[in-house]
Amino acid sequence: MINMVSKFYLWSYLLIHFRSILLLHITIILCNCIFIQNVASEQTSDTIKEASLLDINDYRIPMVLTNENPMIDGYVDEECWSKAPVISNFTQVQPHEGSPPSERTEVRLLYNSGYIYVGIHAFDSQPENITARVMQRDGSMYFDDSVKMIFDTFHDNRNAFYFEINALGALRDALIMSGKSPNYNWDSIWDGKAAINKNGWSAELAIPIKSLSFDPKGKNWGFNVERTIQRNREKIRWSAPYRNKSIVELGDSGVLADITGLEQGFGLEFMPYLNMKTTRDQVLNNSSFELKPGFDLFYKITPAVTAALTVNTDFAEAEVDERRVNLTRFELFFPEKRMFFLQDSEIFRFAGLSRSPVPFFFTTHRAR
Hints:
Largest sheet: 8 strands, mixed
Helix content: 10-25%
Number of helices: 2
CATH class of the largest domain: Mainly Beta
Radius of gyration: 30 Å
Structural class: alpha+beta
């Protein structure tokens, strides 16, 4: 009996000491975690402060007003380009994140009351190996040497305009909602030319102010630019050159500062059209002729709100739908390409919806 009591007290003693030692170890681990977290927080704060200073110094470009309109021929050789601020501090995103680019790139920007001008020098030590195949408007340039850029004209980190040009001068444009895939069905009026030379390739862009929506009182625009060097599978970017970021994430864009004196005009866009149809019946030997006029009218009530009116909508203005073979039991959906229905359609892209909840926006369906 005595032996059993002794063993009981011995085990109780060991258990109490074991619990004390265990609690002591847990306390030490928690203290270490709190200390490490505080140190990490301080380091993160310092990093954020350093990044903020870096953003202010390196990713803010004062825009220069020009009285000379450069000739858009792909050669950035006019005198006015020498006065433009130069963006050259690009960083690799792929394949080696954070490394210097393998080739030098210079982007210059100018503006006047009617246009935004962009001059690009994409230097290349092997110009004979420049990859450029696409020449179609709005064609995919994923496998081409190209330069793409975004303009966040309201500087609200929500919506932006996307422009892209490759070494052959093919153009592509789109609307962007931050973090979403570009809507390439949108088309604007702008001009761009490119030329390949012994030093690489160059390009010039002229973007009419009237093709963009913006706040006349705002002096700063969000901006970012990215170049692809296809033979190296290399992507370099100006602002936010991180692999887990994308150029369409507008919160990470740089800033074009001191933009003043832009003229948006009356904010009125009128697009008339005329459809003619003639029919002849060979059996009855008679014919008929039909004339159908119509127009689309857009008016900017405010810089961010556009009123749209259409009369006898021209359903033939969009390109022919792609031919598809449907082997499923589901209906096919085709993207909306008529400009009237694309106006401000980004508003209806929310909550990760692949198709708009509004029936006539974005998609039209076809029966099987």
